[in-house]
Design goal:
alpha+beta, 3 helices, 23% helix, binds 2'-deoxyguanosine-5'-monophosphate
């Protein structure tokens, strides 16, 4: 994926503020933070989204995400993990990434304009 910006970050062709890295995964600060702690965690292998990722990659990324939370000091205070998928999910960068948000009490409000109880 030559044109994928996160693949370029993996290859160090674009700069990023790295928090943690190993052979398979990379964690770096989001360029547009929405919380005091806002980290993006990605597999170096390109997957368009969570919908395409393999179980083995998910198995590997789980302890990596837990380690990122420890490095950032939010493992005890708590954090939110989000992955946006496709158009309705609001995904802008088509390389699987997990947003790790924390450092403050996060809000949890209606996420869509339509009535969330309409389909109940
Ligand atoms: P999403 O909407 O889930 O696809 O989120 C994409 C996130 O990626 C968004 O919060 C902004 C961030 N982002 C986009 N381009 C760059 C970049 O070049 N560097 C960094 N560090 N973050 C980026």
């Amino acid at each position: 994926m030559a044109e994928c910006i996160f693949c370029k970050i993996v290859r160090k062709e674009l700069p990023s503020n790295i928090v943690l890295e190993n052979e398979q995964f990379l964690a770096f600060h989001d360029i547009n933070p929405k919380a005091p702690v806002h980290i993006l965690i990605i597999p170096k292998e390109h997957f368009d989204s969570f919908q395409e990722v393999t179980p083995s990659t998910m198995e590997g990324i789980t302890p990596f995400i837990q380690e990122v939370a420890k490095v950032l000091g939010v493992d005890s205070s708590g954090y939110r993990l989000i992955t946006n998928i496709g158009e309705n999910g609001g995904q802008e960068v088509k390389h699987l990434h997990f947003h790790l948000l924390g450092g403050a009490k996060l809000k949890w409000e209606h996420l869509a304009d339509s009535n969330p109880k309409a389909n109940l």
